[in-house]
Amino acid sequence: MGLSKGEVNMIVDTLRVFVTVAEQRHFSKAAELLNMSQPGVSQHIRNMENELGTKLMLRSPKQVKLTEEGTILYRKAKQILSLYEEAKQQIHLLHEVVTGSIQIGASFTIGEYILPRLLAKFAGQYPEVDLQLTIGNTEEIVAGIRSNDLDLALVEGTVEEHPDLIITPYMQDEMIVVAARNHPLAAAAALEPADLANQNWIIREIGSGTRAFSDHFLQANGLTPKRSYVFNSSQGVKEAVSAGLGIAVLSRLAVRKELGNGELCELAVSGPAMKRELSVIRNRQGSLTLAAEMFQREVQERQQAAEWTCDLPELADHL
């Protein structure tokens, strides 16, 4: 005998409550997120424990901790909920409706200078999809994918290969050395990398893809900064460079507006163009909802149509 619609919904709801409590490690926080009463949340957990005949959670006044059995259920419950959502999306597609939510992660350069325009276009095409964006440095975003807190992420620079990750490059990003207009090096028609020695450098924090590229550039050219100043965003780096605090390696995407209005200038350093990969990453163990699949397809189609580069001047005007 099959399950009724109400019974299916009850099972899904109970699993969703269990996963939320497990992730929040607190009943009251989970109740708040789920818009439920705390006794209602507790009842769902008791029902689940009675059904399985085992203790799933260890409760204390400060937090909730999963038992070994609870950990097993948590992993499977995440998969079940993901598959259920995927099935709903595929059914909705039969009626030409893409719904659901996507947790998208992005490293700073992409999140601040590329993704807003893409999200705006995607939201216009699929208004029923709830888009939630998390911006952090590359290391933080990769961690979010591995923990399944994020469905998809767009990151800059080299991502270390890992069995949990599917890494798909989608475009190249050019890195350049920038300085304030009145910097002593700004007037030089041509510079060798060695000319950048003994300079103050403005760099990003450890874990950033931009920081990794800067470190590689300095090491590859045998450069030791006179002094380093660390900022945790590209915007902070740009402001410091503009104020004359030092020079920096940044994405051309991030400084297009400042180069255009003369606030910053590109130093004419000899050598091949400095490129790095931008990639889409996802967790190999998870299954994408239809909405997430459509978003990833949009990223790939824009890359193939070269819209990323042709839209950049207009994009910069909107930042």
UniProtKB/TrEMBL annotation:
This is LysR family transcriptional regulator. Belongs to the LysR transcriptional regulatory family. Residues 10-67 form the HTH lysR-type domain. Pfam families: HTH_1, LysR_substrate. Keywords: DNA-binding, Transcription, Transcription regulation. InterPro entries: LysR_HTH_N, LysR_subst-bd, WH-like_DNA-bd_sf, WH_DNA-bd_sf. Gene3D superfamilies: Periplasmic binding protein-like II, Winged helix-like DNA-binding domain superfamily/Winged helix DNA-binding domain.
